[in-house]
Amino acid sequence: MRPDILVLGALTSPHMLQQLEAGFTCHHAWRLPAAEQEAFIASVAGKARAVVTNGGLGISRELIAQLPAIEIIAVNGIGVDAVPFDATRARGIAVTNTPGVLTDDVADLGVLLLMAAARRLPWLDSYVRRGDWDAKKPIAPALSLRGKVAGIFGFGRIGQAISHRLAAFGMRLCYYQPNPVAGTDVERVGSLHELAERCDYLVVAAPGGERTRHSIDGSILDALGPTGTLVNIARGSVVDEAALIAALTEGRLGAAALDVFEDEPHVPEALRALPNVVLTPHVASLTVETRQAMGQLVVDNLLAHFAGKPLPTPVA
Ligand code: 8YV
């Protein structure tokens, strides 16, 4: 009998979808309008032996409690901050994620956002579209990246991949995270506050969750200052969004480039109205190749689990 799986997060890889459909009886909650999902989930809850979800969505403690047959939660993403591990541990539920395969694309988007903010790409694009070039309206020059300091908060695989890319642009680098990283030439500074004081671009690549919640608060943004730029490709929860909006609106922070938000997909109107902000809708890993590789890991973990084999990428 094919195991029943409950799919919560949108599946963006057709290849993954095909393989899931071939090996399992899939119940696709994500295809339904939000208002219909609860009743649908309740109707299949008794038989779901696996859940497929994504990094941002995770799974709630309440939903886990609703699933008597659940054995494994396969997260289609690297971040597992939205998975309640006390609940999974208590029930012996396995959790897997997709490490490694998304590092390059997420790092690329981090650099793209940093450069888009530095060179004011959205403003320039609309300048041309609006016909301001024909009208010979003035353009203020941007600032060069060469010689500027990028401070990376969170120096795991993605943070390090961002640093390699930015080094190639002639930027100086430093990082902060609680545990020093071995085997890197990049300097670790003593605190997040010091990192923000030292850098021109503060790039958030730290995991989400309670430990990092609102780490980037008003005092960190003030340390970054009116010429500083915040880039976030990690989790919206790491940044106090209200403090960020206040700092940008009051000119205490120069600019921000954000792929992630506190209450996705809701992006506060105040943020959307600011000209010195670049916004993308949580798409750092959204490329054909990476989503296929992530999807393959999800499928491989599920197949291994139901075949009684070791999981390729379990979360410890
Ligand atoms: C995805 C992510 O957007 O990996 C993560 O933690 O947030 C992203 O790569 C998400 O998991 C969609 O599948």
From TrEMBL:
The record's comment on protein family reads: Belongs to the D-isomer specific 2-hydroxyacid dehydrogenase family.
Query: Which Pfam family would be a valid example here?
Result: 2-Hacid_dh_C
Output the SUPFAM superfamilies linked to this UniProt entry: Formate/glycerate dehydrogenase catalytic domain-like (SSF52283), NAD(P)-binding Rossmann-fold domains (SSF51735)
Originating species: Noviherbaspirillum pedocola
Q: Which residues form the D-isomer specific 2-hydroxyacid dehydrogenase NAD-binding domain?
A: 112-284
**Keyword terms, alphabetized:** NAD, NADP, Oxidoreductase
Q: Which Gene3D superfamilies match?
A: NAD(P)-binding Rossmann-like Domain
Q: Which CDD domains match?
A: HPPR
Q: Which InterPro entries match?
A: D-isomer_2-hydroxyacid_DH (IPR050223), D-isomer_2_OHA_DH_cat_dom (IPR006139), D-isomer_DH_NAD-bd (IPR006140), NAD(P)-bd_dom_sf (IPR036291)
Could you tell me what this protein is called?
Answer: 2-hydroxyacid dehydrogenase
Q: Which GO terms describe its molecular function?
A: glyoxylate reductase (NADPH) activity; hydroxypyruvate reductase [NAD(P)H] activity; NAD binding
Q: Which residues form the signal peptide?
A: none
- Superkingdom is Bacteria
Q: Identify the GO cellular component terms for this protein.
A: cytosol
- Residue ranges annotated for the D-isomer specific 2-hydroxyacid dehydrogenase catalytic domain, each copy included: 7-315
